[in-house]
Amino acid sequence: MPVSKDKTVFQCQVCGRQSPKWVGKCQDCGTWNSFVEERLERSKVSSALSKSVPTSIADIELNDEERINTGIQELNRVLGGGIVAGSLILIGGDPGIGKSTLVLQLLDGVYRNNAVVGGQALYVSAEESLKQIKLRARRLGIDTTEILVVSETCLEVVFEHIKQVKPVVVVIDSIQTVFTQEISSAPGSVGQVRETALRLMLFAKQSSVPVFIVGHVTKEGAIAGPRTLEHIVDTVIYFEGDRGHPFRILRAVKNRFGSTNEIGVFEMREGGLVEVANPSELFLSERPTGVSGTTVISTMEGTRPLLVELQALATQTTFGVPRRTGIGVDLNRVNLLVAVLEKIGGVHLGHMDIFINVVGGLKITEPAFDLGIITTIASSFLERPVQESVFLFGEVGLSGEIRAVSQAEARIKEGAKIGFKQAILPEANLSRLSISPQIELKGVKNIDEALKTAINR
Fold first, then answer.
1. 3-state class of 167 per DSSP?
2. Are 75 and 83 spatial neighbours (Cβ–Cβ below 8 Å)?
3. How much of the chain exceeds pLDDT 90, in percent?
4. Number of alpha helices (DSSP H) and beta strands (DSSP E) in the chain
5. Which among 108, 300, 321, 386 is least buried, having the fewest CB atoms inside 10 angstroms?
6. Contact, 341 vs 381, CB < 8 A?
7. How far is residue 25 from each of residues 122, 146, 220, 229, measured CA to CA in Å?
8. Is the pLDDT higher at 197 or at 188?
């Protein structure tokens, strides 16, 4: 009697699209060579949802539970004030950026600040041995009996450990190497990642235990695995930074319990991640003085004002088409502002290569950065430095007008605290201020006035 074949399907490892046959390019996400053959199996997680009962929204009771303090104020800021009970939090980042260091310091901070009482934390490492984790803990100065560590990749065994320990916080490092026996596909595949994340989500919601899962990222910077992984979790945090530089930026791109505009700034040292309480001072610590092509810009990251250095280099092109290169800025926005500077400002840049860099590894997208880009490019082209005691902010329109931006008072206070003597800002913002500034303020209406004030054009 012939043996029946298992039904298989080809599945995109990026977006999860299924196809009965192999195709070179996914029609949904456009990724090439992403389809892998997997056995088609029915998920068994959904059966747990049948126990739920519809309830009137008026009958639902709320408990005013305080958030759990992580002991790391920069992380608390990004999470919206701390850890919410029963939340599923995904932390992604490049290999070696410091994700495992961050979660280990997080667990230590929870107990060091007595945020939880009467329970232990469980750190499940699916990539490293217990001795490797101990070496990291020794380097970080962590030696507590409240953090239990287990090296395991099977999700069913992990749940057995959870049942015995009854932890108050769980960390899974990493989700791409954990697998469930109910699916025969390889760890890291779409089916495995989605199934394990769903089961962890159900556990977190039913037990009110917060779960942190660490995720790898692809070379494009997105978290590896299906896109549904980010939809399942409550919070998605990216740990950014260049391994060649000590600064690390913690940024939330999804947060059901807080804002996604906040960032946390850390410095990687031999003893682990150290919080940077005043990032503006750190970003400006090596700023050159008396040279053209460098400007200090005020930007907002959530509720936090930051002063960062913007550098530009305008040089004669050796090719037929001039190059426009930017690090930390939107290149399309730069091209738009270069056109405004050339058309309205009369600065002829058609034969110039332009390179722009935001110092410190930050990525700035808000429109208040426009005035800084205009001024920095003009400063490099005209070889006239901006005064070192001046910072500026403002949005630039296509007609060359300087438009008002939000939270001008917070930006001015931050500049005065750092020690700047003068701020160049939109005139509309100047007329709306309700504070007595401690520094000199110069309101400008258009880019001509801005360039005359900043670089004495």
1. coil
2. no
3. 42
4. 12, 21
5. 321
6. no
7. 41, 49, 17, 21
8. 197
- pLDDT, tens digit (0-9, with 9 covering 90-100), for 157-196: 999 999 999 998 999 998 888 999 888 777 877 778 888 9
Q: Which neighbouring-strand residues pair with 402?
A: 396
Q: Which two tokens stand for residue 288?
A: 């050159």
Q: What's the CA gap between 219 and 378, in Å, rounded?
A: 35
DSSP strand E in 7-114: where?
8-12, 18-19, 35-39, 88-93
Domains recognised in the chain with CATH numbers: 8-39 (no CATH), 68-277 (3.40.50.300), 282-455 (3.30.230.10)
Four-residue CA torsion sign, 183, 200, 249, 128: negative
What's the residue count for the chain? 457
Do residues 288 and 295 lie in contact, with contact meaning Cβ atoms separated by under 8 Å? no
Q: Which two tokens stand for residue 218?
A: 């692809």
Q: Using the CB atoms, write b or e for 43-72: b if 16+ within 10 Å.
A: eebeeeeeeeeeeeeeeeeeeeeebbbbbb
**Buried-exposed string 162-194: b where 16+ CB fall within 10 A, e elsewhere:** beeeebbbbbbbbbbbbbbebbebebbbbbbbb
Instruction: Please give the structure tokens belonging to residue 330.
Output: 């939107």
Average pLDDT for 1-30 = 75
